[in-house]
Every structure is written in structure tokens, then in C-alpha cells.
Amino acid sequence: MPEITDEQRKQLEEKIKNMSPEELKQFQKQQCVFCQIVAGKIPSKKVYEDDKCIAVLDINPAAKGHLLIMPKEHYTIMPQIPEKEMAHLFLVSKHLSQIILKTLKVSGTNIFVANGPAAGQRAQHFMLHLIPRKEGDKLMDNPDKLIDANLRAKVKELIEPRLNALLGVKKEVQQTLPSAPEPSTEPIKEDKQVEEAEWKEVEEEKEASQKPAKKSSKSKSKTAKEPKASAGKKSKKSVDKAPEPATEDDNDNASLDDIANLFR
Amino acid sequence: MKCEYCDLVERQNELEILYEDKDVVIAIKDFCVIPGQITVFPKQHFTILETVPDDVLQKCFLMANKVSVAIFESMGVQGTNLLVSNGLGAGQKVPHFSIEVIPRREGDGLNLQWPTKEMSEDDRETAFLMLKEDASKLVDIGKKKEAPKEEKKEEKISDKTEKGEKKENYLLKSLRRLP
Questions:
Q1: What are B74-123's pLDDT values in tens digits?
Q2: CA A123, B114, B68, B61 torsion-angle sign
Q3: Is the reported ipTM for this assembly greater than 0.90?
């Protein structure tokens, strides 16, 4: 992107501020290199294409035959993608992985997804890396460590309520009653309620538990603490649907949208 | 010797299993690259990605996405990675297909990036043509269970179809480009 003057930037910011979500999406799309690759405006080595996705050779490959599989539609991160489309992407990756194994005669493949710059995401278009691997190539090589049982219990405590809520929405009877849990005839439902209640408690305790939990040392304290709030806010929303890029004015709130926004 | 993940399912340790249904298990392993890492795997024993049935595979990934969201919202991290290590060459340690969901923070020191591999334009081109040729046999992924794919030993195989001719051209082209 060429350099722009302060004045131009101001104008641009103003313009972006006044855009409707549709316009904003359109704008992002125009700015996105990968959308232009999808549209064929930028040349690429296209290996596979169907109505939903496209697979091209990475121009900065980790290995020979490193593929990028991306949806044709512009999404920044994984949770924004409709389930059906995501399922399709991974199915395509399975088939392409098979082809890589056979054709390039490698002994393995990695499927790699990065959500957020901290995870190594460099493009603002969601993509799935399919990396051919050979023994001793030193890629993605991370030693396993034994994680202390207490720490694992903490992890479980932290994540379980949220995960259950997310999975519950999709699978089980979804009648969350805000009232206190009462012995119900249906064990599943009861569990659900208890979990809801527990979750709230955990939410409150989280700040306390966060510190001893782990590795908050390196992260900025702001991001370590804030998700509690945003998680609480979001929980009642439908989680089945991908979060819309709602314009949250609170910048300190690290939410999925903010991760997406970091790219803007 | 039993498979580590099948074993995990069998021993039903409260601490390890986060979620389980007839197809998918979500677990916290004792050995991982970073605390907070969650593993999603099919309940039935499948060795590698290619052997996992489509519907189970899709379910695994949709679950992995939910795990990723849950990690993000409840553990105060800045990003997540999904990583599938498929095959020995990719560092797969347990012979049971799994998806690792890894919480990420700036400066956590994990090696999940790669330097660009230097290679000649010819190498790129041959890899591209070979993959493209095979990928062109993929039809209607997800619509038919068994798409006419594979059946390929060497890179030099020619069909009798008109597509075959086209492919041969690619190969000829790639041969010509070879030094």
C-alpha cells in the first residue's frame, strides 16, 4: 500500500466510521489481497477451485507444495465462518492432503490454522495451511512438556463452562432457566442449569484464578483480564451464529471482533 | 500396547475428558506444548486424517472451532492455532488422528512459524503442475462419498480422456522446464 498523508488517513478513517456493515465488508474485501486472488485479479498458482473455496500455492512456502485453502467469501477468523462452509473447507483439505502425500511423496502433512496475529496470522483473510512434511525438516517442532495436574484442573475449570455452553447450544435441549437449579426430571437439563450457575461463579472467581493459573506474565494484563467481561456479554447471544462484526466501542475488551479488528 | 487416546477414552478420567459423544472426544492431555492446549479427536480409532470418515472429520473440526472460541473467551489469550500433525513426518506422536487447539500469546516462544523455503521456479512449477493435475480429479467434494480421485503411482499417468491430453501437456511442459 502506498504511503498516505495524515489528511488522507483522516478522511479514510472518517469514511470507514460512516460505513454500514455491508459497506465495511465490501471495503475490507477490496483491501484484501486474497480476495483479489480469489477473483483472479492477482495471478496465483491455483491448484483447486470449487464454488466455495480455492487452493493456491503459498508464495512464502514452508515446504515444496505448501498450499493455502481459503473460502471465496471474505472472513477474517475462523469463528466467523458458517459451519457448512467450514466443514467443506476441511473436507477439501483432507482430499488435498491425500494428494500431497501421494504426489509429492512426503511422509506427513500439517493442517494449520492461525486465529489472530499472536497466533501467527499475517493475512486478513481466513486460510488453512496445508504443509507437506518430511522427517527432520524442523517445522512446527515444539517439545511436549508434562503439564502439572493442578494446572490442568485449572484449565478445565476455566474452559469447561464456556465450552459446555457452546456445545450445548448446538446439541441439547436449550431451555436455560435463569432460576436456581432444582431437581429436574431430566438429568441433562439439570446439568445444564447447574453449569450455568457454576459458570457465573467461575466468572466471578476468574480474576482471582487467572493470576496463579499460568503464563500471564508475558501477556499484557489488560488482555488477560478483559475477556472475562466480553465472554460474559457474549454468552447470552446465540453462539451458533458467527459473531457479527459488531462495532464495540470499548477497545479494551479483547473479543473475537477485536482480533478481527487488529487487522484494520 | 494400546493407543494412547483410545486408552484415555477407556479410563474415563474426569480430569482429562472435557466432552465426549459417540463420535468425538475433547480432552486435556498431560503432555502438551503449552498449558491450556486442548485435543479434539474421533472416538473411534483412526490413524491419520485420510482414514477418518468425512462426517466424523467435519464434526471434529466444528468442535475444534468451538473449543477455539471457548479458549479465546475464557482463558484470556490473544489468539489460537489449530494444528493437525498428520503422519510421522509431520511429527505425529500418537497413531490416532487428532486436532490440537493451542492458545497463543505474543512472545510465548512456540515454533509455529516457518521461514520461507527457497526453491527454484522450476521446482515450484513442477510441484504446482503435479498437484494441479491430481486435484483436477477431485469432483464434487462432499457431494459424493467416493469421488474419483487417487489411482496414481507415478506422476506420469495418462488418461484416455480429453482431459488426459491436457494433463499430458502439463507434464510435457514441466519436463521441458527441467534443466
A1: 888 999 999 999 998 898 989 999 999 999 998 888 888 888 888 888 88
A2: positive
A3: no
At which residue does the C-alpha cell 505425529 appear?
Answer: B92
The domain tally of chain B equals 2
d(CA B73, CA B88): 33
Q: Same domain, yes or no, for B41 and B93?
A: yes
Chain A contacts of B173, Cβ < 8 Å?
Answer: none
Residue B26 lies in a domain: yes
Say whether both B129 and B155 belong to one domain.
Answer: yes
Measured between beta carbons, the chain B residues lying within 8 angstroms of A218 are 105-108
Instruction: List the beta bridge partners of residue A70.
Output: A54
Interchain contact, A142 vs B80, CB within 8 Å: no
- Quick one: closest CA in B to A122, which residue? B113
Are residues B75 and B23 part of one domain?
A: yes
Query: pLDDT of A205-227, one tens digit each?
Result: 544 444 444 444 444 444 444 44
Helical spans, DSSP H, in chain A = 6-17, 21-31, 33-38, 83-103, 149-171, 187-213, 221-225, 227-235, 256-261
Q: Select the more confidently predicted residue: B81 or B147.
A: B81
Is pTM beyond 0.80? Reply is no
Q: How far is CA A208 from CA A160, A212, A255, B71, B76, in A?
A: 17, 8, 20, 18, 13
Please list every residue in chain A whose beta carbon sits closer than 8 Å to the beta carbon of residue B33. 142-145
